[in-house]
Amino acid sequence: MSGAAPHIPVLLDEVMAALAVQPGETHVDGTFGAGGYTRAILAAGAGRVFAFDRDPDAIAAGRALESESEGRLVLVARRFSEMAGVLAERGVAAVDGVTLDIGVSSMQLDRAERGFSFQSDGPLDMRMSRDGETAADFLNTADEAEIADVLYLYGEERQSRRIARAIVAARPLSRTAELAEVVRRAVGYRPGAPKDPATRTFQAIRIHLNRELDELERGLEAAEALLAPGGRLAVVSFHSLEDRIVKRFLKDRSGATPAGSRHRPAAGPAPAPRFDRVSRAVRAGEAEIARNPRSRSATLRSARRTAQPIAYQSGAAPAARRGVPA
Fold first, then answer.
1. Do 84 and 217 reside in the same domain of the chain?
2. The domain containing residue 297 runs over which residues?
3. Cα–Cα–Cα angle for 125, 131, 134, rounded to 5 degrees
4. Residues 119, 259 within the same domain
5. Domains contained in the chain, number
6. Residue 90: band (very low, low, confident or very high) from pLDDT cuts 50, 70, 90
7. Do 273 and 308 touch, CB atoms closer than 8 A?
8. Taking the alpha carbons of 109, 113, 118, 120 in that order, is the dihedral positive or negative?
9. Among residues 210, 229, 260, which one ends one of the domains?
10. Where are the beta strands (DSSP E) in 70-127?
């Protein structure tokens, strides 16, 4: 494939080792973004790659690569949580690998008009799919308690109530620079501190608007349903909320969940594992962090699908996360 990817995919070597792509295989890149993983999977000899992205800008930017692929790459403008149903409609019942790079992409962060970052001023948007409620809509209409809950749950912000109070007092807000300054004043930020306090607020609002944790849960279940026996799953996450969901999902599906004790015996026999070869957390080394600072917070977890069929019924409550509202 010609045309260099505009951004560096994190942990690329480690992801490709986990996927172990074989010539002619069918793979899913659930988070196409700038296409870095897709390019590598194609270069490794995959016969077909179905690349999903809900961001219309990412799909539009990837059309040239799709045209060059001679039918090996199919771009799908849908959420990755829909992969199993979408591919079933196309006559694909199983795939050999699924890759997920969770969260906001470098493409989105670097474009001020998308409103994901406060590094450059832009409109308070933050919508991955370019439709629905914007960040400005949410911040200017939600009550103080709801804003505080979002900041606490999805940003793990200890000063969520103080920041929410400041946001409501400063309304209406329309620009990323405005919001960042409101947060900094609320928490007494000192220039030169190692981390800008606005980071957690922006993360929380983005996750809430795009329902990212729910999407991750459903995406993991979709991958489980779609992977053939021996198929590989590789998931890269960027903060503890995401990684916790992936870790719990793989622990549960691999049979590593405690079976009970004499104080709390198990309700029944443990289900047979649907994943094995579950990796430990893999993180970037110093050389990659120096080359690509975004990789500092990345965590890779991977596993292999067993031949065990899925036992739970469609529509059952997700097992990976409890007690966090959408």
1. yes
2. 12-106+212-305
3. 30
4. no
5. 2
6. very high
7. yes
8. positive
9. 210
10. 73-76, 95-101
Q: What is the CA radius of gyration of the chain?
A: 20
Residues 220 and 90 in one domain: yes
Cα gap 30→144, rounded to integer Å: 35
Give residue 134's pLDDT: 97
Domain harbouring 266, CATH code: 3.40.50.150
The one-letter code for the residue type at 82 is E
Written as one letter, the residue type at 247 is K
Answer yes or no: is pLDDT of 55 > 80. Answer: yes
Q: Spell out a b/e string for 255-283, using b for 16 or more CB atoms within 10 Å of the CB, else e.
A: beeeeeeeeeeeeeeeeebbbeebeeebb
Looking at the domain assignment, is residue 17 inside a domain? yes
Q: Report d(CA 7, CA 55) in Å as an integer.
A: 16
Here the CATH number for the domain that contains residue 186 is 1.10.150.170
* CB-based contacts of 24, cutoff 8 Å, min separation 6: 45, 46, 47
Contact indicator for 21, 38 with CB cutoff of 8 Å: no
Instruction: Give me the pLDDT at residue 189, please.
Output: 86
Strand partners, 27: 49, 97
- Residue where a domain terminates, one of 210, 235, 263: 210
Residues 237 and 300 in one domain: yes
**What global pTM score does this model have?**
0.88
Helix (H/G/I), strand (E/B), else coil: 57: helix
Structure tokens at 103: 């969260």
Q: Phi first, then psi: give them for residue 93, nearest 5 degrees.
A: -90, -25
| Cα(46)–Cα(309) distance, integer angstroms | 25
Q: If you search the block for the tokens 């443990």, which residue do you land on?
A: 270
CA 34 to chain centre: 14
Contact 19, 41 (CB under 8 A): yes
